[in-house]
Design a protein that fits this description.
The protein is mainly alpha-helical. About 85% of the residues lie in helices and about 0% in strands. The chain contains 8 helices and no strands.
């Protein structure tokens, strides 16, 4: 029975790793489509989305089956529970890759003002966060997961800067509006990749260290202890009238 359980876990890990590889490739192709102005890459991303969706269903069913037929505990239980949310985040990154591909098809070529916004830095940071979150999962590396979490602020700052500059660019000329709106969408989608990569990293930390750091990761990473005041703050927020 134990051997069968181990085999089920190994199959689940294999499915998740395949999902990771597929989603990572989807994002890479979507960005290459835009960077190299190659619509064929974008079409490939859109066509492969159904494969991502199939893996999403397979992983969810595998998790449900393991929980139903076994009584996992400790790290095994954390792995299975986190696999469900990691799978959801990967599926959403796959959807974002499709959004990026569709934007690449719509815009056709990079706008002349591309170097005025931090697009290339955003794309590189988002890709690195995704890669590191996947590697942290495969290697069960909480330190790499922390690195991803810390990078999220950097990506958010790029997104904010891009938004501000793009507004100015669109105000300069009506001819910039269509491309400007598309670049706003691309910037937003890259920021969302970072958010989902951060979610995956947080789940990895939970699996390996058995500690929840969602929504309070600064306190954990920088050594601040959770206090009773935190509970008071939550209670005060709940008591505020809507």
């Amino acid at each position: 029975m134990i051997r069968q359980f181990d085999q089920q876990l190994e199959k689940l890990r294999t499915k998740i790793i395949k999902m990771c590889s597929l989603v990572d490739e989807q994002v890479d192709l979507a960005l290459k489509s835009f960077n190299e102005e190659n619509i064929e890459y974008a079409k490939t991303v859109i066509e492969r989305d159904s494969i991502v969706d199939k893996y999403d269903v397979k992983i969810e069913k595998a998790c449900q089956k393991i929980i139903a037929l076994n009584q996992p505990v400790a790290m095994d239980l954390r792995l299975i529970l986190s696999a469900l949310t990691i799978n959801t985040n990967l599926e959403r990154i796959g959807d974002i890759a499709v959004n990026l591909a569709e934007a690449a098809i719509e815009i056709k070529k990079k706008p002349d003002f591309i170097d005025r916004i931090p697009y290339y830095k955003m794309a590189a940071t988002a890709k690195q966060m995704l890669k590191d979150s996947i590697d942290s999962l495969i290697e069960a590396n909480p330190h790499l997961a922390q690195k991803v979490i810390k990078m999220d602020d950097e990506l958010d700052n790029y997104d904010k800067s891009s938004y501000e500059v793009l507004l100015k660019i669109m105000k300069e000329s009506p001819n910039n509006i269509e491309a400007g709106v598309t670049m706003l969408i691309i910037s937003q989608q890259l920021e969302r990749i970072g958010d989902h990569a951060t979610n995956i990293a947080e789940d990895v930390f939970f699996i390996v260290e058995a500690q929840m750091i969602k929504h309070k990761y600064e306190k954990f990473l920088f050594g601040e202890e959770e206090s009773e005041d935190d509970d008071k703050d939550i209670n005060n927020e709940e008591e505020k009238p809507i």
